[in-house]
Amino acid sequence: MAPRASDEIRPTLLREVVWNTWRRHRLALFAMAAVFAGDAIVLLFTGLHAHAVHDSFLAHRCLTVWNSLCPQLLNHMGNSTWVLGYLPWLIAVFLGAPIAAREFDTGTFRFANTQGVSARRQLAVTLVILAAVVMAASAMLGLLGMWCQDPFLRAGAASASLSRWQPGYFQITAVTLPGWTLFALCLGLLAGTCIKRVVPAMAIAVAGLAVFASLSTGSAELTGWSRGGAPPQHVTLMHWLLSMSPAAKRGHTLQVGFPLGTFRHASDRTFLWPAGQSGPEESWQVGGWLAGPSGQRLSGAQTRATLGQIPLHVATKFSGVGGWLAARHITYWIGYQPASRYWPFQAAVAAILLALAIGAGSGAVWLVGRRR
Amino acid sequence: MTMIAPPGLGTGNGPAASRVPWHRLAWVTWRQHRAALAAFAVLAGLIATAMAATGLALHAASLRHFSSRSQWVLLDDTQTLLELTLLLLPVLAGLFLGAPLVARNFETGTIRFSWVQGANRTKCLLAAVALIALLLALIAVGLGLEFRWWATPLLVPGWAWRPDLFGLNPPAFAGWIMLGFSLGVTAGAAIGRTVPAMAATFACYPALWYQVAARWRISELMRLRQAGLHSRFSALRSGYTPFWYLQRRVPAWLTYNPGGRWAEYQWIEFGWLIAVSALLIAGTVILIRRRAA
User: Fold this and answer.
1) What pLDDT is attached to residue A220?
2) Which of B73, B194, B202 sits opposite A232 (nearest CB)?
3) CB hemisphere CA count around A258 (13 angstroms)
4) Interface subset of A 127-186, CB within 8 angstroms of B
5) Which of A255, A317, A313 minimizes the C-alpha distance to A288?
6) Is the CB of A94 less than 8 angstroms away from the CB of B199?
7) What are the tens digits of pLDDT across the range A255-270?
């Protein structure tokens, strides 16, 4: 029996589509490879230097005795996050946006979309190949970055309130960085498919990523400030995620200068011991509240009313507030995420970014099939 | 259809070149780049509005010495975001206005039409560059002045000397935005393709800015005119604090620039940035004059 035509054509087409993808995007892939290699070299040298300085940091007993040399050593360990932080932006602008937009911009889609392989399949294969390359490279850079930052965080956690939970570190690990780069790639592709012109698509990709990054990890708490000096409402997605089902323990000291009402401490920017709190090592404080004599949690208004009764001479005295509250059987509680939840949260963030990337990528593939 | 340009046409040698008035070319420039210019103006407007809103609120609060932590949070966030956005503005000008200015014409082949019109290619380029550069300079000066108004009551005295903020003051900021734009134009003319030209601009500008801000300005430029002062205080050196010097009665020399020279250095920076930008544009003119239509 003679073989059916489809049995021979399918593998041939797949190979050709892969080859075609490489031919069309080889310049961008070479450029990205150069960027990734440059980043890796920077991280490698920074990491070697940071580990050497960390040995000196330990030799000077900076973990226990804070002498005048320690801040300089800590500084010299450096902060290499900027090397990884701009990768998603580059990928969205220079790799994602031109994939489909260039075809429309130059008019070659009239030729490319009338070949044996449908436009949707061409774009899907292109996206899968580029996504695999970008994710693999980002994961390796993420690993290198974690190794590079490790001494800085280990030293800083003891002395300068640095934490791996902080957004600057949380978002560039080997788990979350591939999620960000994939999402950026798909967002750029979607912008290009919608707008069909390269330069405007690049601009929209930058703007879209800026808005998303700001809402998820950045300065979105500005919105809460305008309510007549009310405490900042931390509306970032990362804070919302990290606030889910926190563990609770009795707080050590209450500081009046911190936001009242909701009693959310600056959870996305401070380590577990910001206000003299003590807790499990490497855990992350996400909130604080007052509990009444019967253990019930006080509302924002009740909290403000209670703290408003504290006399000034008590409030200004060290640990005076704690004693004043204890005399009235009011306790201060803090909510925190234990260190054991760090990697599950990393996986959750990566899963959210992956889902968003799949949504954006699918949208782009669906849209390109509708274009005539 | 094939069009053949007669020798001399479009290179500035023909009499037709002088016939097209500049204001007509300004209108053509506006028509060609109105979307990018409008988008840039909207971005600048958003930054200016955000700066005005937060500035008014923070200035009023700072008079009461920031009574709540939320005001510190606002200051911290706004300052970070503002500085970052303003520092990125010259790069954005280079990427989205400079790089496509010539490269898009090469890429789409419209040079075969646009370079054989009444105005020669040099005149077309200079008209486009001058108009866009003028608009960018106005935006830069406006935002620079507003940033000075925003930052002066909030930041520590002497903030305007800080390496990262020195270039955000009006004269220097106008110079940097000119440089970013010119760099994009030159990269576009040299490479002839928009996206690679944008990538080249993105690679070059931050590296240049960092070299100038972090190293060259402090180590070279600001040593042009500095005073000497006998002082017991010295910079920290290998872990020794000024107390170490005081204990041992070691007199240390400190060199500094008086605050009055800040404006002078601003204009020096503006001058060399404009000179480099002019050289880049001159290089672009040479590049496009040598290119066959």
Assistant:
1) 40
2) B73
3) 19
4) none
5) A255
6) yes
7) 443 332 222 233 333 3
